[in-house]
Amino acid sequence: MQNRYLKLSIQNFLLMMCLTLGMHCRSENRASKLPMIQSLESYDAAIHNYSTSPSYVLIFIADRETGQAKPICTTANFLLGAIHREYGLGYGIADLSMAAEIAAKSPGRLFRFNQQSALNNIAVKYTANDLSAARALLAPWSTEELKSKFSSLSREARLPTDNYAREAIACALIERGFSPKLADISGQVYVDR
Question: Average pLDDT, stretch 88-99?
Answer without folding.
Answer: 96
